Amino acid sequence: EMHAQKVTRRSNKSFSTIQREIASAGEKSRTSLVVFLIVAEVIILFLFGFLTRYGPTGQYKPSEDANVDKVTSFLYPMFQDIHVMMFIGFGFLMTYLRANSWSSVGVNYLAAAFAIQLYILCRGLWHSVFEGHWTYIPVDINKLISCDFAAAAVLISYGGILGKVSPFQIVFMAIFEVFFYSLNETIVFDLLKVQDIGGSMVIHTFGAYFGLIVTWLVSPPASNQNPMNVSSHNSNLFAMIGTLFLWMFWPSFNAAPGFGTARPRTIVNTVLSLTGSCLSTFLLSALYRGGRFNMEDILNATLAGGVCIGASANLIFAPWISLLIGFFAGALSTTGFKHIGPFLNDKLRLFDTAGIHHLHGMPGVAGGVISAFIIAGISASDIGQDPQTFWPNMRSSGVQAGTQMAGLGISFGIAIASGLFTGLILKQKVFSPPIELFDDRQFWIIEEEEGHNPGPANPAQNGK
């Protein structure tokens, strides 16, 4: 009813009046964003100057054990794969909205770059807090990989509010999210020593549920019924580019933090899991949709195998387990898009634009639980050594399995609490939320608008 009243009120306005309102709101938001980015970048430059130094492999006179060439030859290709995932994979995956594709890929670009800078400072801060003393923040290729992981959490959250918030709201959200993401990562990895090589819990679960709470708080009523919330044949084709890049490079995403034989094992297990989720998605999409494939399912749920296996990709001791996890993850995600998403929207008014709950949230939680079961079931014959010597602090497999569940619960809890805090701030009018949803025109210069190129408003700008 509220949505109908809003539409009625707007229908009584002239087209030119609506256009002026959009232009005015867009100008205010752009001005706020420009001022904010100038101030933020000055502060970041100041902090980088005083707090950061190159890591051992970046120094002019590295130590003999720095292994500069080995680190560069092994890590940089993986870093590039992950970088492509962040800027091309995530960016193009979100271009499926027909009239919002510029914001999808463009603001993705802005948010990821900003998150990289923020993470270096935030992770260094929390590391010093928990260590009890201050040290310079090392910056090297390993740190850049971790930066991309933090950016991934922000971009996952962005998918939930895609098309419903301004760029100013997105970059401001990135500050809070990276701050709390770094806190969660420090607790889960440094203190608890949780096994989560591919970030099922720390990245996907955290990013998804942080984003879902923000979405629930800031999304306008009935935004899912907005006529601009649609895709087209071409926009879905561009989105498939993002899906394929993510699908191909996901093994590097999961394997980059590994060492020794864990790295190739993680690559193999991730590839197998992704093939499983691809097949189950196509199968169930056709089953659920009357024999034809649904592009929303294919764009997203085919990737769920990479999410779900992340916490256990280096721990699995038989290839068939990877295939099974992937098949299960694809089925879970496809079911989420078909049944769970509409239920959440109807019952909780939770409209998740890109379906982050079904691609990242549920498979991430499932991945954390699966890792606990796999760890609890590992025997000496599986890994060729006493499991107690395999886990941190000489833990038994049962204790490490319980630690996995604790890490999942902490990631989920911090995501919910910090998402609630951030959402309550972002819903304030000072952040200039968009008037028109799912529409690039408020924030981008669209030269083809209304079928012509208007040129500069002032002839003097043409030198005439």
SSE arrangement:
Layout: H1 2-11, H2 15-51, E1 52-54, H3 68-93, H4 101-131, E2 137-139, H5 141-160, H6 167-191, H7 200-218, H8 233-255, H9 262-288, H10 295-300, H11 304-308, H12 319-348, H13 356-377, H14 380-383, H15 387-390, H16 397-426
Parallel strand pairs: 1-2
Main sheet makeup = 2 strands, parallel
Stretches where pLDDT falls below 50 for ≥5 residues?
1-11, 450-464
SSE string: HHEHHEHHHHHHHHHHHH
Using only C-alpha atoms, the radius of gyration works out to 23 Å
What spatial form do the alpha-carbon principal axes imply? globular
Number of strands: 2
Strand fraction: under 5%
* Terminus-to-terminus distance: 52 Å
Global mean pLDDT? 90
Q: Could you please describe the fold and organization of this structure?
A:
This protein is mainly α. It has 16 helices and 2 strands. Strands 1-2 form a two-stranded parallel sheet. The longest helix has 37 residues, at 15-51. The radius of gyration is 23 Å and the shape is globular. The protein starts with a helix and ends in a 38-residue tail after the last helix. The model is unreliable at 1-11 and 450-464 (pLDDT under 50).
Core attributes:
464 residues; mainly alpha; two-stranded parallel sheet; globular
Give a short summary of the structure:
This protein is mainly alpha-helical and about 475 residues long. It has 16 helices and two strands. It is globular and about 70 Å long.
